[in-house]
Write a sequence for this structure.
């Protein structure tokens, strides 16, 4: 048998040979094309009727016993329900045939697509690979065959030796110098658990290259059929997982910890022991090192192997990702994800008698623990974005006489949050920073007992009895090598004319020291926190400080909400981040991760607007009552709203819009508008458009016809609602340009029929732009003619501006201005209070006074002093900050960007809307307009990972709704377009 170490040269078999083999041994006439392989020869055979199969010529290094074991494994897989291609016997009935001394086999072709080059893998796909690896070990666990016990280079039990032997083949010295220590470190970690790792039959190469995928409803490629059992043998059970997981890394190499999804899914179906859990990442790193070294060796001995050459870059990406996180840290990540205890017990924490007394016994005065976190009141109004935000907090505390200002361990720092980036910033401090004012020398005491090691770089180390290191940066230690007790003097903080800083960290044995600034604790990204919570300890316990350490509790908060929510109550995302702060057009979660908010049209000014906050704070301290009392804010706000309306021409029909009725929400505003129309006309029938959304009250829901919100909407409308055709020129009855008159004529026919039936129209309600459809603009001329027909029939025209009004169109303040009309009744709400609940109706006095016939109108909170003051603040800010113009300019930039993407990505269909109410419609076919709803939902999930909050809308839920705060910047808009481009190019 040829020695496997050092790689194998593939059998010298050509395409014409493959055709002859198929004819002679299987009796079929085929065409053949070569498939890639490192050590064998594989060919795709296609018969005249189009049926396909795969021909494999095995490397002579492998014995018949190995092939027989593989056939037995196929049976075991099928018995367990794991999809595998069938082995096809030759003309003599044998599965293994002979040709010129080579062992030859043929198998059924596995339908699907190769996954190795599929780009990004979503969390669900990563989990499915983990489940498939678990199914593999479960299926093979009971398999016994002599052909399984064979030496081979891919057996992870000998991988360190194999990789080390191949190191000379790596021609790049820098790469070779990187690979060598990884082999040694992984080998050392495995040595401590190797004896506890179960051995069983495993596939040995269950990777993205050996699994065929099928497309799901969301067009994601999902793993299905297991291929190529060439590496089947006895091996560590956990190696099946490690090999599979390592192949996931190159699908997004800059985020290697995403592979924890694969590991957790395996553990759920094939529970791992603690020893196996500790072995996973060393095996991943070792597998990556072996891939790199063997790839170079394969090219050395088989330079014409195009398959091996193509795989070099991917193998390098796997290695880079596997080693991007220090190995010890990665082990702790796995243990934390699977719920195993920390590798090393935390050091004993003996509380100090008073704040910092255990470290600075001569310190006198108040010790202030600062709050740089995501919910800090001291960082309001965007103060956290200032480059010196932390210094401002520190200086403020010291200026007020504090003896020390402490930046605590483990508090996600809002001050380190970065905006407009696809990656999370390092926000979690692995230590406590103590800031002292200028002053004389201060005595330094040991906060823990242990061995003192002084260094010349201003760091004192105290190693505790269980190996933990307490590091004190910024002080001088007086003695080296001494055993010190807690409280014992060990040095001093030097005298200084300016502020001084001590940084205290407590680090586990063997953990790498993190790099950080001299005057601050090192920080890590949120996804690294689970490991560093185990590899470090909060110094608060030994410093006499309150513990403030935080964790990402989004999953717990989601479970809490699920317990108390009804199933009908919606939420965004499969795994939603916990959002506790917003500023302008960004949202920030509890880990300090910032997102561009593309859906919050309620906060038109942007989140956390100081003008609105000040208005609330001032008015709530003075007066808040109901509108039956006399106060100036109600009239002042109403007059400001009326002043924003376009002037009705003198010769135009209809009354002057001069009356405002204020309520709490858009649903209430629509409800009131319907009542007004019925009261003013003495009629009941209201005409609404198909696919519309208008609210959740009984009346507003009655005119809501969206099947997305209510699948039975059209069949369950009350008798006073008539549903007219929606004038959607992309999906409606009439499509394309010049359809406005056709839709309006159909509406006229409906009105005539209603009148003939004794159901004359009271009102016609329509969004001025089809917001629920994703910002679809009404066909030219439609609304003007529709209004004319409704008025001619004696009805009133209601414009629902709740979503599309208030400057969002950019080129106009109101949506109805896009159509050159003026309605009889206008409903408004969402942006009026920038998140504060305000709704309203604007109409004529004649229409409003008709309500008196039904009794008095009153809303407990509608139009109260607080809501009016907030409304005024919103109008002031819109004018002062030029937000309508910003909507026009940035909206045009966004629309242009999306339309440019449509030229490269066929999934993008029409781009709807105007200003900052846009809709990017996703379709599977631009001709048939088949909606890509599942893809749209998946794309939203992926965009969230990249820092963009966007959701779907429309009857078919296939439109990305773009309705951000009106303060959206060009920089953020460009990030959103780039993120969508990345997702559509690399996958979702």
């Amino acid at each position: 048998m040829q020695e496997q170490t050092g790689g194998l040269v593939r059998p010298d078999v050509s395409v014409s040979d493959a055709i002859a083999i198929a004819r002679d041994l299987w009796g079929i006439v085929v065409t053949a094309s070569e498939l890639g392989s490192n050590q064998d020869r594989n060919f795709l055979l296609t018969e005249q009727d189009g049926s396909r199969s795969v021909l494999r010529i095995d490397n002579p290094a492998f014995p018949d016993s190995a092939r027989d074991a593989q056939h037995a494994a196929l049976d075991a897989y099928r018995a367990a329900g794991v999809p595998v291609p069938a082995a096809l016997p030759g003309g003599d009935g044998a599965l293994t045939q002979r040709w010129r001394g080579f062992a030859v086999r043929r198998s059924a072709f596995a339908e699907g697509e190769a996954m190795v080059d599929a780009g990004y893998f979503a969390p669900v796909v990563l989990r499915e690979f983990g489940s498939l690896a678990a199914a593999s070990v479960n299926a093979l666990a009971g398999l016994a065959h002599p052909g399984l016990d064979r030496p081979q280079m891919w057996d992870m039990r000998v991988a360190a030796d194999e990789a080390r032997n191949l190191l000379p083949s790596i021609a790049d010295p820098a790469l070779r110098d990187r690979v060598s220590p990884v082999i040694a470190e992984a080998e050392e970690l495995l040595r401590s658990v190797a004896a506890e790792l179960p051995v069983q039959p495993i596939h040995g190469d269950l990777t993205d290259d050996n699994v065929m995928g099928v497309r799901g409803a969301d067009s994601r490629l999902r793993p299905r059929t297991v291929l190529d059992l060439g590496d089947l043998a006895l091996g560590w059970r956990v190696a099946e997982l490690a090999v599979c997981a390592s192949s996931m890394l190159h699908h997004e190499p800059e985020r290697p910890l995403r592979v924890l999804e694969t590991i957790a899914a395996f553990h759920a179906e094939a529970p791992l022991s603690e020893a196996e859990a500790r072995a996973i990442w060393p095996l991943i790193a070792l597998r990556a090192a072996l891939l790199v070294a063997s790839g170079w060796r394969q090219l050395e001995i088989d330079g014409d192997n195009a398959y091996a050459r193509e795989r070099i870059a991917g193998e390098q990406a796997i290695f880079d990702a596997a080693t991007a996180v220090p190995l010890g840290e990665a082990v702790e990540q796995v243990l934390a994800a699977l719920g195993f205890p920390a590798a090393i017990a935390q050091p004993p924490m003996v509380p100090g008698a008073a704040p910092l007394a255990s470290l600075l016994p001569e310190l006198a005065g108040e010790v202030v623990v600062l709050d740089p976190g995501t919910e800090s009141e001291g960082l309001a109004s965007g103060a956290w974005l200032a480059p010196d935000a932390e210094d401002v907090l520190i200086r403020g505390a010291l200026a007020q006489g504090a003896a020390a200002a402490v930046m605590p361990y483990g508090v996600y720092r809002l001050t380190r949050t970065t905006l407009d980036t696809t990656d999370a910033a390092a926000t979690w401090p692995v230590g406590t920073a103590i800031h002292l004012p200028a002053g004389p020398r201060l005595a330094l005491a040991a906060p823990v007992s242990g061995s003192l090691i002084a260094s010349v770089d201003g760091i004192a180390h105290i190693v505790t009895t269980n190996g933990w290191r307490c590091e004190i940066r910024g002080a001088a230690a007086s003695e080296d090598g001494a055993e010190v007790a807690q409280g014992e003097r060990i040095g001093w903080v030097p005298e200084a004319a300016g502020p001084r800083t001590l940084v205290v960290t407590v680090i586990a044995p063997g953990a790498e020291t993190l790099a950080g600034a001299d005057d601050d604790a090192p920080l890590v990204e949120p996804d690294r926190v689970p490991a560093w919570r185990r590899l470090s300890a909060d110094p608060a316990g030994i410093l006499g400080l309150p513990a403030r350490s935080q964790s990402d509790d989004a999953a717990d908060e989601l479970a809490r909400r699920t317990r108390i929510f009804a199933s009908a109550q919606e939420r965004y995302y499969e795994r939603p981040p916990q959002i506790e702060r917003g500023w302008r057009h960004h949202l920030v979660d509890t880990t300090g991760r910032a997102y561009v908010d593309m859906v919050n049209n309620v906060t038109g000014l942007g989140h956390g607007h100081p003008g609105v906050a000040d208005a609330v704070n001032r008015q709530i301290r003075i007066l808040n009552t109901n509108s039956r009392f006399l106060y100036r804010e109600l009239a002042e706000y109403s007059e400001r709203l009326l002043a924003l309306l376009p002037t009705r021409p003198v010769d135009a029909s209809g009354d002057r819009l001069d009356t405002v009725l204020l309520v709490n929400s858009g649903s209430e505003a629509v409800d009131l508008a319907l009542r007004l129309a019925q009261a003013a006309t003495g009629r009941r029938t209201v005409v609404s458009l198909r696919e519309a959304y208008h609210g959740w009250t009984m009346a507003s829901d009655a005119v809501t016809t969206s099947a997305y919100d209510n699948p039975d909407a059209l069949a369950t409308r009350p008798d006073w609602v008539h549903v007219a055709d929606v004038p959607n020129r992309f999906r409606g009855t009439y499509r394309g340009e010049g359809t406005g008159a056709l839709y309006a004529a159909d509406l006229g026919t409906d009105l005539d029929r209603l009148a003939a039936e004794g159901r004359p129209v009271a009102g016609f309600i329509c969004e001025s732009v089809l917001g629920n459809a994703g910002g679809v603009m009404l066909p030219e001329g439609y609304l003007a003619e529709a209004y004319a027909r409704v008025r001619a029939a004696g009805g009133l025209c209601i414009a629902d501006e709740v979503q599309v009004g208030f400057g969002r169109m950019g080129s106009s303040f109101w949506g109805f201005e896009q159509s050159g009309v003026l309605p009889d009744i206008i409903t408004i709400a969402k942006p009026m209070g920038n998140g504060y609940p305000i709704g309203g109706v604007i109409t004529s006095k004649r229409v409003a006074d008709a309500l008196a016939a039904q009794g008095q109108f009153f809303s407990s909170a509608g139009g109260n002093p607080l809501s009016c003051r907030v409304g005024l603040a919103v109008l002031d800010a819109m004018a002062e900050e030029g937000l309508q113009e910003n909507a026009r300019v940035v909206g045009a930039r966004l629309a242009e960007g999306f339309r440019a993407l449509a030229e490269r990505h066929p999934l993008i269909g029409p781009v709807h809307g105007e200003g900052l109410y846009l809709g990017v419609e996703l379709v599977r076919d631009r001709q048939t307009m088949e909606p890509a709803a599942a893809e749209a939902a998946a794309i939203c999930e992926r965009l969230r990972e990249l820092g963009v909050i966007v959701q779907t809308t429309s009857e078919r839920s296939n439109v990305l709704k773009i309705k951000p705060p009106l303060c959206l910047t060009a920089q953020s808009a460009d990030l959103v377009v780039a993120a969508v481009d990345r997702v559509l190019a690399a996958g979702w």
